[in-house]
Amino acid sequence: MLYIFCPHCGSRSQNEFAYGGDATVKRPELNKEISDQEWNNFVYLRKSPRGKHLELWHHISGCRQWIKVERDTSTHEIFKTYKADELTE
Amino acid sequence: MQKYSVFSLIKNAFSDHQNWEVAWKDPTPKKEYDVIIIGGGGHGLATAYYLAKEHNITNVAIIEKGWIGGGNVGRNTTIIRSNYMHDDNALFSEFGMDLWRKMSQDLNYNVMFSPRGIINLAHSDAQMNAYSRRGNSMRLNGIDAVLLNREEVQKRIPMADFSDNVRFPIFGGLMQPSAGTARHDAVAWGYARQADSMGVDIIQNCEVTGFDVNNGKIVGVRTSRGDIKAKKVGLCVAGSTNILAEMLNMTLPIETHLLQACVSEPVKPLLDHVVTFGAGHFYCSQSDKGEMVMGGDLDGYNSYSQRGNLPTLQHVLTEGIAMFPFLSKLKMLRTWGGIMDMSMDGSPIIDKTHIDGLYLNCGWCYGGFKATPASGWTFAHTIAQDRVHELNSGYSLNRFNTGDLIDEKGLGTKTWIS
Fold first, then answer.
1. CA–CA separation, A17 vs A3, rounded Å?
2. Which of B6, B89, B99, B113 is the most exposed place for a label (fewest CB within 10 A)?
3. Is residue A70 less than 8 Å (CB to CB) from chain B?
Protein backbone atom coordinates (compact mmCIF):
# COMPACT_ATOMS: atom_id res chain seq x y z
CA MET A 1 0.00 0.00 0.00
CA LEU A 2 1.30 3.43 -0.92
CA TYR A 3 0.67 6.31 1.44
CA ILE A 4 0.46 9.56 -0.45
CA PHE A 5 0.68 12.92 1.29
CA CYS A 6 -2.07 15.10 -0.17
CA PRO A 7 -1.03 18.76 0.25
CA HIS A 8 -4.67 19.57 1.03
CA CYS A 9 -5.68 16.65 3.28
CA GLY A 10 -2.55 15.00 4.69
CA SER A 11 -1.36 11.40 4.43
CA ARG A 12 -3.91 9.04 2.83
CA SER A 13 -3.81 5.52 1.42
CA GLN A 14 -3.47 4.99 -2.34
CA ASN A 15 -7.02 3.59 -2.46
CA GLU A 16 -8.30 7.18 -2.29
CA PHE A 17 -6.35 8.23 -5.36
CA ALA A 18 -6.51 7.70 -9.11
CA TYR A 19 -3.34 7.80 -11.15
CA GLY A 20 -2.97 10.47 -13.82
CA GLY A 21 0.35 9.73 -15.49
CA ASP A 22 3.50 11.69 -16.25
CA ALA A 23 3.25 15.27 -14.94
CA THR A 24 6.12 16.63 -17.02
CA VAL A 25 4.27 16.32 -20.33
CA LYS A 26 3.36 19.76 -21.70
CA ARG A 27 0.40 20.36 -23.97
CA PRO A 28 1.32 22.37 -27.08
CA GLU A 29 0.28 26.00 -26.78
CA LEU A 30 -3.16 27.02 -28.00
CA ASN A 31 -3.60 29.21 -31.08
CA LYS A 32 -0.24 28.22 -32.48
CA GLU A 33 0.75 26.23 -35.53
CA ILE A 34 1.43 22.70 -34.25
CA SER A 35 3.20 19.99 -36.21
CA ASP A 36 2.13 16.33 -36.20
CA GLN A 37 5.40 15.52 -34.49
CA GLU A 38 4.60 17.91 -31.60
CA TRP A 39 1.18 16.31 -31.16
CA ASN A 40 2.75 12.87 -31.29
CA ASN A 41 5.23 13.86 -28.59
CA PHE A 42 2.47 15.21 -26.38
CA VAL A 43 -0.09 12.44 -26.84
CA TYR A 44 2.04 9.32 -27.10
CA LEU A 45 5.70 9.63 -26.17
CA ARG A 46 6.72 9.05 -22.56
CA LYS A 47 10.14 8.79 -20.94
CA SER A 48 8.90 6.37 -18.26
CA PRO A 49 12.14 6.54 -16.27
CA ARG A 50 13.35 3.99 -13.76
CA GLY A 51 13.89 6.09 -10.64
CA LYS A 52 12.47 9.52 -9.89
CA HIS A 53 9.21 10.21 -11.70
CA LEU A 54 7.03 13.29 -11.38
CA GLU A 55 3.44 12.21 -11.83
CA LEU A 56 -0.15 13.34 -11.42
CA TRP A 57 -2.56 11.77 -8.96
CA HIS A 58 -6.20 12.65 -8.46
CA HIS A 59 -7.45 12.58 -4.86
CA ILE A 60 -10.73 11.30 -6.20
CA SER A 61 -12.15 9.86 -2.96
CA GLY A 62 -10.94 12.82 -0.92
CA CYS A 63 -10.71 16.50 -1.79
CA ARG A 64 -10.92 15.74 -5.54
CA GLN A 65 -7.88 17.90 -6.24
CA TRP A 66 -5.16 16.93 -8.70
CA ILE A 67 -1.71 16.81 -7.14
CA LYS A 68 1.84 16.17 -8.30
CA VAL A 69 3.85 13.39 -6.69
CA GLU A 70 7.55 12.77 -6.99
CA ARG A 71 7.97 9.00 -6.63
CA ASP A 72 10.66 6.41 -7.32
CA THR A 73 9.35 3.92 -9.88
CA SER A 74 11.53 1.07 -8.64
CA THR A 75 11.29 1.50 -4.84
CA HIS A 76 7.94 3.38 -4.69
CA GLU A 77 9.50 5.85 -2.24
CA ILE A 78 7.60 9.14 -2.34
CA PHE A 79 9.97 12.09 -2.01
CA LYS A 80 7.66 15.05 -2.17
CA THR A 81 4.14 16.04 -3.18
CA TYR A 82 2.95 19.33 -4.64
CA LYS A 83 -0.30 21.13 -5.33
CA ALA A 84 -1.18 20.97 -9.02
CA ASP A 85 -0.21 24.59 -9.70
CA GLU A 86 2.83 24.57 -7.43
CA LEU A 87 6.24 24.86 -9.07
CA THR A 88 8.35 21.73 -8.73
CA GLU A 89 12.06 21.68 -8.00
CA MET B 1 22.92 -32.28 -29.79
CA GLN B 2 21.40 -35.14 -27.90
CA LYS B 3 17.87 -35.91 -29.07
CA TYR B 4 15.25 -36.13 -26.34
CA SER B 5 13.07 -39.22 -26.72
CA VAL B 6 11.71 -42.09 -24.70
CA PHE B 7 14.81 -44.09 -25.70
CA SER B 8 17.25 -41.45 -24.46
CA LEU B 9 15.20 -41.27 -21.27
CA ILE B 10 15.49 -45.04 -20.71
CA LYS B 11 19.16 -45.05 -21.66
CA ASN B 12 19.95 -42.30 -19.18
CA ALA B 13 17.94 -43.99 -16.46
CA PHE B 14 20.67 -46.68 -16.36
CA SER B 15 23.23 -44.06 -15.37
CA ASP B 16 20.94 -42.39 -12.82
CA HIS B 17 20.46 -39.43 -15.17
CA GLN B 18 24.00 -38.25 -14.43
CA ASN B 19 25.18 -38.14 -18.05
CA TRP B 20 22.71 -35.83 -19.79
CA GLU B 21 24.39 -33.21 -21.95
CA VAL B 22 24.01 -29.63 -20.78
CA ALA B 23 21.03 -28.05 -22.52
CA TRP B 24 22.98 -24.93 -23.48
CA LYS B 25 26.55 -23.78 -22.95
CA ASP B 26 27.87 -20.87 -20.93
CA PRO B 27 30.20 -19.16 -23.42
CA THR B 28 32.33 -16.08 -22.88
CA PRO B 29 31.39 -13.29 -25.28
CA LYS B 30 33.32 -13.11 -28.55
CA LYS B 31 34.71 -9.80 -29.84
CA GLU B 32 32.19 -9.54 -32.64
CA TYR B 33 28.88 -10.99 -33.83
CA ASP B 34 26.73 -10.58 -36.91
CA VAL B 35 23.67 -10.07 -34.73
CA ILE B 36 23.29 -9.35 -31.04
CA ILE B 37 19.89 -9.89 -29.46
CA ILE B 38 19.50 -8.04 -26.19
CA GLY B 39 17.19 -9.88 -23.82
CA GLY B 40 17.17 -13.63 -23.22
CA GLY B 41 13.45 -13.99 -22.66
CA GLY B 42 11.06 -15.93 -24.81
CA HIS B 43 11.05 -13.41 -27.64
CA GLY B 44 14.84 -12.98 -27.71
CA LEU B 45 15.48 -16.72 -27.64
CA ALA B 46 12.86 -17.34 -30.33
CA THR B 47 14.37 -14.59 -32.48
CA ALA B 48 17.81 -16.15 -32.26
CA TYR B 49 16.37 -19.58 -33.03
CA TYR B 50 14.56 -18.39 -36.17
CA LEU B 51 17.57 -16.33 -37.28
CA ALA B 52 19.55 -19.57 -37.29
CA LYS B 53 16.82 -21.83 -38.61
CA GLU B 54 15.09 -19.67 -41.22
CA HIS B 55 17.88 -17.32 -42.26
CA ASN B 56 21.01 -19.32 -41.64
CA ILE B 57 22.51 -16.58 -39.46
CA THR B 58 24.29 -18.35 -36.64
CA ASN B 59 26.97 -15.88 -35.55
CA VAL B 60 24.50 -14.56 -33.02
CA ALA B 61 24.71 -13.67 -29.33
CA ILE B 62 21.86 -13.32 -26.88
CA ILE B 63 22.80 -10.97 -24.06
CA GLU B 64 20.79 -11.39 -20.89
CA LYS B 65 21.19 -9.30 -17.75
CA GLY B 66 19.81 -12.01 -15.48
CA TRP B 67 19.24 -15.62 -16.42
CA ILE B 68 17.28 -17.42 -19.14
CA GLY B 69 13.62 -17.67 -18.23
CA GLY B 70 13.88 -15.34 -15.21
CA GLY B 71 11.90 -12.45 -16.67
CA ASN B 72 8.41 -12.26 -18.08
CA VAL B 73 8.64 -15.61 -19.88
CA GLY B 74 8.72 -17.17 -16.41
CA ARG B 75 6.19 -14.78 -14.89
CA ASN B 76 3.21 -14.91 -17.23
CA THR B 77 0.02 -16.96 -16.90
CA THR B 78 0.86 -19.16 -19.93
CA ILE B 79 -2.20 -18.32 -22.03
CA ILE B 80 -2.08 -18.79 -25.81
CA ARG B 81 -4.82 -17.38 -28.01
CA SER B 82 -5.55 -15.49 -31.21
CA ASN B 83 -9.01 -14.10 -30.45
CA TYR B 84 -8.35 -10.72 -32.01
CA MET B 85 -10.66 -8.65 -34.18
CA HIS B 86 -8.27 -6.40 -36.08
CA ASP B 87 -6.53 -7.96 -39.06
CA ASP B 88 -3.01 -7.04 -37.97
CA ASN B 89 -3.40 -8.75 -34.61
CA ALA B 90 -5.51 -11.65 -35.87
CA LEU B 91 -3.24 -12.73 -38.73
CA PHE B 92 -0.10 -12.31 -36.64
CA SER B 93 -1.51 -14.32 -33.72
CA GLU B 94 -3.00 -17.04 -35.88
CA PHE B 95 0.37 -17.47 -37.60
CA GLY B 96 1.70 -17.91 -34.07
CA MET B 97 -0.96 -20.51 -33.23
CA ASP B 98 0.38 -22.63 -36.05
CA LEU B 99 3.90 -22.39 -34.64
CA TRP B 100 2.57 -23.31 -31.19
CA ARG B 101 0.90 -26.44 -32.53
CA LYS B 102 4.17 -27.65 -34.03
CA MET B 103 6.47 -26.34 -31.32
CA SER B 104 7.13 -29.48 -29.25
CA GLN B 105 8.17 -31.45 -32.35
CA ASP B 106 10.02 -28.51 -33.86
CA LEU B 107 12.09 -27.89 -30.73
CA ASN B 108 12.32 -31.55 -29.66
CA TYR B 109 11.14 -30.27 -26.29
CA ASN B 110 7.78 -30.89 -24.69
CA VAL B 111 6.25 -27.46 -24.16
CA MET B 112 3.02 -29.11 -22.99
CA PHE B 113 0.84 -27.12 -25.38
CA SER B 114 -2.70 -27.72 -24.24
CA PRO B 115 -5.40 -26.31 -26.56
CA ARG B 116 -8.13 -26.35 -23.96
CA GLY B 117 -10.04 -23.35 -25.26
CA ILE B 118 -10.57 -19.86 -23.89
CA ILE B 119 -13.96 -18.41 -22.93
CA ASN B 120 -14.50 -14.64 -22.68
CA LEU B 121 -17.60 -14.11 -20.57
CA ALA B 122 -20.32 -11.64 -21.58
CA HIS B 123 -22.75 -9.97 -19.18
CA SER B 124 -25.20 -8.01 -21.32
CA ASP B 125 -26.93 -8.13 -24.68
CA ALA B 126 -24.63 -5.37 -25.89
CA GLN B 127 -21.57 -7.39 -24.96
CA MET B 128 -23.03 -10.45 -26.69
CA ASN B 129 -23.43 -8.35 -29.84
CA ALA B 130 -19.87 -7.12 -29.54
CA TYR B 131 -18.60 -10.69 -29.13
CA SER B 132 -20.69 -11.84 -32.05
CA ARG B 133 -18.98 -9.19 -34.18
CA ARG B 134 -15.57 -10.14 -32.85
CA GLY B 135 -16.24 -13.82 -33.43
CA ASN B 136 -17.33 -13.16 -37.01
CA SER B 137 -14.20 -11.10 -37.64
CA MET B 138 -12.10 -13.93 -36.27
CA ARG B 139 -13.80 -16.50 -38.50
CA LEU B 140 -13.27 -14.31 -41.57
CA ASN B 141 -9.57 -14.46 -40.74
CA GLY B 142 -9.68 -18.25 -40.42
CA ILE B 143 -9.68 -18.37 -36.62
CA ASP B 144 -12.12 -20.64 -34.82
CA ALA B 145 -14.71 -18.83 -32.73
CA VAL B 146 -17.93 -20.03 -31.13
CA LEU B 147 -20.56 -17.84 -29.53
CA LEU B 148 -21.93 -19.59 -26.46
CA ASN B 149 -25.24 -18.84 -24.76
CA ARG B 150 -25.73 -18.97 -21.02
CA GLU B 151 -26.60 -22.68 -20.92
CA GLU B 152 -23.62 -23.61 -23.05
CA VAL B 153 -21.31 -21.66 -20.77
CA GLN B 154 -22.89 -23.30 -17.73
CA LYS B 155 -22.26 -26.74 -19.20
CA ARG B 156 -18.58 -25.91 -19.64
CA ILE B 157 -17.91 -24.04 -16.39
CA PRO B 158 -20.65 -25.13 -13.96
CA MET B 159 -18.70 -23.84 -10.96
CA ALA B 160 -19.12 -20.19 -12.01
CA ASP B 161 -21.78 -18.20 -10.21
CA PHE B 162 -25.00 -18.69 -12.20
CA SER B 163 -27.29 -17.55 -9.38
CA ASP B 164 -29.76 -14.70 -9.81
CA ASN B 165 -28.36 -12.11 -7.47
CA VAL B 166 -25.05 -11.31 -9.10
CA ARG B 167 -23.81 -7.94 -10.30
CA PHE B 168 -22.60 -9.39 -13.62
CA PRO B 169 -24.93 -12.25 -14.65
CA ILE B 170 -23.48 -14.50 -17.35
CA PHE B 171 -25.33 -13.95 -20.64
CA GLY B 172 -22.94 -16.11 -22.62
CA GLY B 173 -19.45 -15.94 -23.96
CA LEU B 174 -17.12 -16.08 -26.89
CA MET B 175 -14.97 -19.19 -27.10
CA GLN B 176 -11.88 -19.90 -29.12
CA PRO B 177 -11.61 -23.70 -28.83
CA SER B 178 -8.07 -23.86 -30.26
CA ALA B 179 -6.64 -21.46 -27.67
CA GLY B 180 -5.00 -22.83 -24.57
CA THR B 181 -1.91 -22.88 -22.42
CA ALA B 182 1.69 -24.12 -22.55
CA ARG B 183 4.49 -24.68 -20.08
CA HIS B 184 6.19 -21.26 -20.17
CA ASP B 185 9.59 -22.32 -18.82
CA ALA B 186 9.77 -25.14 -21.35
CA VAL B 187 9.25 -22.63 -24.15
CA ALA B 188 12.27 -20.63 -22.99
CA TRP B 189 14.40 -23.72 -22.42
CA GLY B 190 13.37 -25.36 -25.68
CA TYR B 191 14.25 -22.31 -27.75
CA ALA B 192 17.49 -21.79 -25.79
CA ARG B 193 18.59 -25.40 -26.30
CA GLN B 194 17.92 -25.38 -30.05
CA ALA B 195 19.44 -21.93 -30.61
CA ASP B 196 22.54 -23.00 -28.69
CA SER B 197 22.86 -26.18 -30.73
CA MET B 198 22.89 -24.15 -33.94
CA GLY B 199 25.74 -21.96 -32.73
CA VAL B 200 24.03 -19.09 -30.93
CA ASP B 201 25.93 -17.84 -27.86
CA ILE B 202 23.63 -17.40 -24.87
CA ILE B 203 25.43 -14.99 -22.57
CA GLN B 204 23.79 -14.66 -19.17
CA ASN B 205 24.61 -12.27 -16.33
CA CYS B 206 25.65 -9.67 -18.88
CA GLU B 207 24.07 -6.23 -18.58
CA VAL B 208 24.01 -3.76 -21.45
CA THR B 209 25.41 -0.42 -20.30
CA GLY B 210 25.50 1.49 -23.58
CA PHE B 211 25.52 1.44 -27.36
CA ASP B 212 28.13 2.38 -29.93
CA VAL B 213 26.53 4.27 -32.77
CA ASN B 214 28.66 5.66 -35.58
CA ASN B 215 27.21 7.95 -38.29
CA GLY B 216 23.69 6.76 -37.61
CA LYS B 217 24.70 3.11 -37.73
CA ILE B 218 24.96 0.67 -34.84
CA VAL B 219 28.45 -0.79 -34.43
CA GLY B 220 28.28 -2.50 -31.08
CA VAL B 221 27.06 -2.66 -27.52
CA ARG B 222 28.83 -1.98 -24.25
CA THR B 223 28.18 -4.52 -21.56
CA SER B 224 29.22 -5.38 -18.04
CA ARG B 225 31.40 -8.09 -19.63
CA GLY B 226 33.14 -5.81 -22.09
CA ASP B 227 32.41 -4.14 -25.43
CA ILE B 228 31.03 -6.37 -28.19
CA LYS B 229 30.93 -5.36 -31.83
CA ALA B 230 27.89 -6.19 -33.92
CA LYS B 231 26.56 -5.47 -37.40
CA LYS B 232 22.98 -5.63 -36.20
CA VAL B 233 21.36 -5.33 -32.78
CA GLY B 234 17.83 -6.33 -31.82
CA LEU B 235 16.11 -5.13 -28.65
CA CYS B 236 13.84 -7.73 -27.02
CA VAL B 237 13.60 -6.39 -23.50
CA ALA B 238 9.92 -5.80 -22.83
CA GLY B 239 9.66 -4.18 -19.42
CA SER B 240 13.05 -2.50 -19.70
CA THR B 241 12.68 -1.02 -23.18
CA ASN B 242 12.49 2.54 -21.86
CA ILE B 243 15.78 2.11 -20.00
CA LEU B 244 17.65 1.03 -23.13
CA ALA B 245 15.82 3.63 -25.23
CA GLU B 246 17.14 6.33 -22.93
CA MET B 247 20.72 5.16 -23.65
CA LEU B 248 19.90 5.63 -27.33
CA ASN B 249 18.25 9.04 -26.79
CA MET B 250 14.97 7.63 -28.01
CA THR B 251 11.59 8.36 -26.45
CA LEU B 252 8.97 5.70 -27.13
CA PRO B 253 5.18 5.47 -26.97
CA ILE B 254 5.54 3.11 -24.04
CA GLU B 255 5.13 3.23 -20.29
CA THR B 256 6.44 0.53 -17.99
CA HIS B 257 3.82 -0.89 -15.65
CA LEU B 258 3.57 -3.74 -13.23
CA LEU B 259 1.23 -6.71 -13.67
CA GLN B 260 0.62 -9.27 -10.97
CA ALA B 261 -0.41 -12.89 -11.09
CA CYS B 262 -0.98 -15.53 -8.46
CA VAL B 263 -1.68 -19.23 -8.00
CA SER B 264 -3.72 -21.07 -5.41
CA GLU B 265 -2.87 -24.35 -3.75
CA PRO B 266 -3.36 -27.29 -6.13
CA VAL B 267 -6.78 -28.94 -6.25
CA LYS B 268 -8.31 -31.71 -8.36
CA PRO B 269 -9.23 -30.85 -11.98
CA LEU B 270 -12.31 -28.64 -12.04
CA LEU B 271 -11.75 -25.91 -14.63
CA ASP B 272 -11.26 -27.24 -18.17
CA HIS B 273 -10.81 -23.93 -19.98
CA VAL B 274 -9.15 -20.58 -19.67
CA VAL B 275 -11.88 -18.18 -18.52
CA THR B 276 -11.75 -14.41 -18.66
CA PHE B 277 -14.15 -12.27 -16.65
CA GLY B 278 -13.34 -9.00 -18.35
CA ALA B 279 -16.04 -6.98 -16.64
CA GLY B 280 -14.44 -7.89 -13.34
CA HIS B 281 -10.81 -7.57 -14.47
CA PHE B 282 -10.11 -11.21 -13.70
CA TYR B 283 -9.06 -14.31 -15.57
CA CYS B 284 -8.29 -17.83 -14.48
CA SER B 285 -7.13 -21.23 -15.67
CA GLN B 286 -6.03 -24.41 -13.93
CA SER B 287 -2.47 -25.59 -14.34
CA ASP B 288 -1.53 -29.21 -14.94
CA LYS B 289 -0.43 -29.33 -11.31
CA GLY B 290 -3.94 -28.31 -10.24
CA GLU B 291 -3.20 -24.76 -9.14
CA MET B 292 -5.68 -22.08 -10.11
CA VAL B 293 -3.63 -19.54 -12.09
CA MET B 294 -5.14 -16.08 -11.78
CA GLY B 295 -4.47 -12.55 -12.91
CA GLY B 296 -6.12 -9.24 -13.55
CA ASP B 297 -5.30 -5.56 -13.53
CA LEU B 298 -2.12 -3.57 -13.73
CA ASP B 299 -1.02 -2.06 -10.43
CA GLY B 300 -1.92 1.20 -12.10
CA TYR B 301 1.12 3.46 -11.97
CA ASN B 302 4.54 3.41 -13.63
CA SER B 303 6.66 0.75 -11.97
CA TYR B 304 9.90 -1.14 -12.42
CA SER B 305 9.68 -2.94 -9.10
CA GLN B 306 8.88 -6.51 -10.32
CA ARG B 307 6.82 -7.06 -7.20
CA GLY B 308 3.21 -6.25 -6.62
CA ASN B 309 1.21 -4.11 -4.27
CA LEU B 310 -1.62 -5.51 -2.17
CA PRO B 311 -4.63 -3.33 -3.15
CA THR B 312 -4.58 -4.58 -6.76
CA LEU B 313 -4.24 -8.20 -5.71
CA GLN B 314 -7.16 -7.77 -3.31
CA HIS B 315 -9.26 -6.22 -6.08
CA VAL B 316 -8.44 -9.01 -8.54
CA LEU B 317 -9.28 -11.76 -6.06
CA THR B 318 -12.48 -10.03 -4.94
CA GLU B 319 -13.62 -10.11 -8.55
CA GLY B 320 -12.42 -13.68 -8.87
CA ILE B 321 -14.52 -14.82 -5.93
CA ALA B 322 -17.53 -12.97 -7.36
CA MET B 323 -17.30 -15.12 -10.50
CA PHE B 324 -16.00 -18.33 -8.91
CA PRO B 325 -17.20 -18.43 -5.28
CA PHE B 326 -15.24 -21.65 -4.57
CA LEU B 327 -12.01 -19.66 -4.81
CA SER B 328 -12.67 -18.21 -1.36
CA LYS B 329 -11.97 -21.66 0.13
CA LEU B 330 -8.54 -21.95 -1.46
CA LYS B 331 -5.25 -20.87 0.07
CA MET B 332 -2.94 -18.68 -1.93
CA LEU B 333 0.30 -20.39 -2.84
CA ARG B 334 2.34 -17.69 -4.57
CA THR B 335 1.95 -14.18 -5.90
CA TRP B 336 4.41 -12.37 -8.11
CA GLY B 337 4.76 -9.48 -10.51
CA GLY B 338 6.41 -8.67 -13.80
CA ILE B 339 6.98 -5.38 -15.58
CA MET B 340 5.24 -4.73 -18.89
CA ASP B 341 5.78 -2.46 -21.82
CA MET B 342 2.39 -0.79 -22.05
CA SER B 343 2.16 0.69 -25.51
CA MET B 344 -0.21 3.57 -26.15
CA ASP B 345 -2.66 1.63 -28.30
CA GLY B 346 -2.30 -1.72 -26.57
CA SER B 347 -0.52 -3.34 -29.52
CA PRO B 348 3.17 -4.22 -29.90
CA ILE B 349 5.98 -2.73 -31.96
CA ILE B 350 8.26 -4.86 -34.19
CA ASP B 351 10.13 -2.53 -36.47
CA LYS B 352 13.34 -0.95 -37.67
CA THR B 353 14.48 2.27 -36.03
CA HIS B 354 16.06 5.51 -37.21
CA ILE B 355 19.44 3.95 -36.35
CA ASP B 356 20.75 1.71 -39.11
CA GLY B 357 21.07 -1.89 -37.90
CA LEU B 358 19.05 -1.35 -34.72
CA TYR B 359 15.73 -3.17 -34.48
CA LEU B 360 12.98 -2.84 -31.93
CA ASN B 361 10.66 -5.49 -30.48
CA CYS B 362 8.59 -4.12 -27.61
CA GLY B 363 5.21 -2.95 -26.34
CA TRP B 364 3.69 -6.35 -25.63
CA CYS B 365 1.31 -5.18 -22.91
CA TYR B 366 -0.66 -8.16 -21.53
CA GLY B 367 -0.04 -10.43 -24.50
CA GLY B 368 3.66 -11.18 -24.72
CA PHE B 369 3.77 -14.88 -23.97
CA LYS B 370 1.33 -16.13 -26.59
CA ALA B 371 3.16 -14.03 -29.18
CA THR B 372 6.56 -15.63 -28.47
CA PRO B 373 6.94 -17.76 -31.62
CA ALA B 374 5.33 -15.29 -34.05
CA SER B 375 7.28 -12.41 -32.53
CA GLY B 376 10.57 -14.31 -32.81
CA TRP B 377 9.79 -15.41 -36.35
CA THR B 378 8.85 -11.96 -37.66
CA PHE B 379 11.59 -10.17 -35.73
CA ALA B 380 14.18 -12.60 -37.14
CA HIS B 381 12.84 -11.82 -40.60
CA THR B 382 12.95 -8.07 -39.95
CA ILE B 383 16.57 -8.29 -38.77
CA ALA B 384 17.82 -10.71 -41.42
CA GLN B 385 16.16 -9.00 -44.40
CA ASP B 386 16.39 -5.45 -43.00
CA ARG B 387 12.69 -4.99 -43.78
CA VAL B 388 9.49 -5.82 -41.97
CA HIS B 389 7.47 -8.89 -42.92
CA GLU B 390 3.86 -8.52 -44.02
CA LEU B 391 2.79 -10.06 -40.71
CA ASN B 392 4.38 -7.33 -38.59
CA SER B 393 3.96 -4.44 -41.02
CA GLY B 394 1.13 -3.08 -38.85
CA TYR B 395 3.31 -3.09 -35.75
CA SER B 396 5.31 -0.08 -36.88
CA LEU B 397 6.88 2.45 -34.56
CA ASN B 398 5.64 5.24 -36.78
CA ARG B 399 1.95 4.36 -36.52
CA PHE B 400 1.44 6.76 -33.63
CA ASN B 401 2.68 9.56 -35.87
CA THR B 402 0.52 8.62 -38.82
CA GLY B 403 -2.60 7.69 -36.87
CA ASP B 404 -2.62 4.04 -37.97
CA LEU B 405 -3.21 2.79 -34.45
CA ILE B 406 -4.28 -0.79 -33.76
CA ASP B 407 -6.64 0.02 -30.93
CA GLU B 408 -7.90 -3.49 -30.38
CA LYS B 409 -9.31 -2.71 -26.96
CA GLY B 410 -9.84 1.01 -27.43
CA LEU B 411 -7.60 1.78 -24.48
CA GLY B 412 -6.12 4.91 -26.02
CA THR B 413 -3.24 6.58 -24.31
CA LYS B 414 -4.34 6.02 -20.74
CA THR B 415 -2.79 2.65 -20.20
CA TRP B 416 -3.44 2.85 -16.49
CA ILE B 417 -7.20 3.05 -17.03
CA SER B 418 -7.26 -0.44 -18.56
1. 10
2. B6
3. no
Residue A11 lies in a domain: yes
How many Å lie between the alpha carbon of B321 and the closest alpha carbon of chain A?
A: 20
Chain A CB contacts of B416 under 8 Å are 19, 21
Closest CA to A54 of A72, A70, A73, A77: A70
Is there a domain that residue A69 lies in?
A: yes
pLDDT per position as a tens digit, B218-263: 999 999 999 999 999 999 999 999 999 999 999 999 999 999 999 9
Number of neighbouring beta carbons within 10 Å of residue B357: 19
| Tens of pLDDT, residues B267-304 | 999 999 999 998 888 999 999 999 999 999 899 999 99
CA distances from B149 to B121, B168, B404 (A): 10, 15, 35
Are B242 and A49 an interchain contact pair (Cβ–Cβ within 8 Å)?
Answer: yes
**What is residue A5's three-state secondary structure?**
strand
Enter the ipTM: 0.95
Report the C-alpha gap between B29 and B10 in whole angstroms: 36
In total, how many domains does chain A have? 1
Whether B393 contacts chain A with CB within 8 A: no
Nearest-CB residue to A76 (from B305, B310, B400): B305
Q: How far is B137 from chain A (nearest CA, A)?
A: 28
B163–chain A Cβ distance below 8 A for any pair: no
| Residue B194 φ then ψ, to 5° | -70, -40
Does any domain span residue A41? no
Task: Find which of B65, B255, B304 to mutate to test the A interface (most A CBs within 10 Å of its CB).
Answer: B304
- CATH number at A16 reads 3.30.2270.10
Residue at A39 is within a domain: no
Domain span at residue A67 reads 1-21+47-89
Whether B412 has its CB under 8 Å from any CB of chain A: the answer is no
